[in-house]
């Protein structure tokens, strides 16, 4: 199983890229959002990957974060959701958007993705609602994949001219880190995972710029007994 690739971006197409890893080219399919975030051709790139193997098919799907990869895996477990539809959902909403929509039971937002009808969107929310807290607690993009020994080995094995100065890998999302921290704090306070995830998602949707402490306060207000 190939879980991560680090190499040079050889070319990009409408729905996939080719990554050259020490002379071996890997075709990797990505969401529109992920494709837009990647560096230019000839530059260093690193992606988490998920491999699908069937009798007549072997394909790799690439993701910049573990959260995106995990949502892809879970979305594909829902009846009626294949890899292409999963990438369409992630490309439309992003992993944070998927987390919020499912935690809030907002199937209408999921339906906004191409190829997703009302029944399928409702099934996604119902099937994955209890799994949202675990995914929201994940964190991290590929932040250090192209630093240190890994890149040195890559460069030593490739006699081609040095690539253009590479962009710094995207730092972990502040919003995702704040949500994960708030979710952990609420869990430590004894709130159930589903209730905590829904409250954090609602608080984050109301104030996307909120830090961890603000999210905790807002979520506690939402969880407070009414009346």
UniProtKB/TrEMBL annotation:
Protein name: Holliday junction branch migration complex subunit RuvA
Source organism, top-level taxon: Bacteria
Domain DNA helicase Holliday junction RuvA type per the UniProt entry, residue ranges: 1-62
Native organism: Falsiruegeria litorea R37
Record-annotated Holliday junction DNA helicase RuvA C-terminal domain positions: 182-224
Subcellular location: Cytoplasm
GO biological process: DNA recombination; DNA repair
Free-text function comment from the UniProt entry: The RuvA-RuvB-RuvC complex processes Holliday junction (HJ) DNA during genetic recombination and DNA repair, while the RuvA-RuvB complex plays an important role in the rescue of blocked DNA replication forks via replication fork reversal (RFR). RuvA specifically binds to HJ cruciform DNA, conferring on it an open structure. The RuvB hexamer acts as an ATP-dependent pump, pulling dsDNA into and through the RuvAB complex. HJ branch migration allows RuvC to scan DNA until it finds its consensus sequence, where it cleaves and resolves the cruciform DNA.
Region (Disordered): 158-177
An annotated GO cellular component: cytoplasm
Gene name of the record: ruvA
Region (Domain I) location: 1-64
An example Gene Ontology molecular-function term: four-way junction helicase activity
Subunit note: Homotetramer. Forms an RuvA(8)-RuvB(12)-Holliday junction (HJ) complex. HJ DNA is sandwiched between 2 RuvA tetramers; dsDNA enters through RuvA and exits via RuvB. An RuvB hexamer assembles on each DNA strand where it exits the tetramer. Each RuvB hexamer is contacted by two RuvA subunits (via domain III) on 2 adjacent RuvB subunits; this complex drives branch migration. In the full resolvosome a probable DNA-RuvA(4)-RuvB(12)-RuvC(2) complex forms which resolves the HJ.
Record remark on domains: Has three domains with a flexible linker between the domains II and III and assumes an 'L' shape. Domain III is highly mobile and contacts RuvB.
């Amino acid at each position: 199983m190939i879980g991560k690739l680090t190499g040079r971006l050889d070319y990009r197409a409408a729905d996939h890229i080719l990554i050259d890893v020490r002379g071996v080219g890997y075709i990797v399919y990505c969401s529109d959002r992920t494709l837009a975030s990647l560096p230019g051709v000839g530059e260093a790139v690193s992606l988490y990957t998920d491999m699908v193997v069937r009798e007549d098919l072997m394909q790799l799907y690439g993701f910049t974060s573990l959260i995106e990869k995990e949502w892809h895996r879970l979305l594909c477990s829902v009846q009626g959701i294949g890899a292409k539809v999963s990438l369409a959902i992630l490309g439309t909403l992003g992993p944070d958007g998927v987390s919020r929509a499912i935690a809030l039971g907002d199937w209408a937002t999921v339906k906004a993705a191409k190829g997703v009808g009302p029944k399928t969107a409702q099934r996604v929310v119902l099937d994955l609602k209890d799994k949202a807290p675990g995914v929201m607690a994940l964190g991290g993009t590929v932040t250090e994949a192209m630093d240190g020994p890994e890149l040195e080995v890559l460069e030593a094995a490739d006699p081609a001219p040095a690539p253009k100065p590479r962009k710094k890998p995207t730092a972990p999302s502040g919003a995702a880190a704040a949500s994960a921290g708030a979710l952990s704090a609420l869990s430590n306070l004894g709130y159930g995972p589903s209730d905590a995830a829904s409250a954090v998602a609602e608080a984050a949707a109301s104030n996307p710029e909120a830090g961890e402490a603000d999210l905790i306060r807002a979520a506690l207000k939402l969880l407070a007994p009414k009346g």
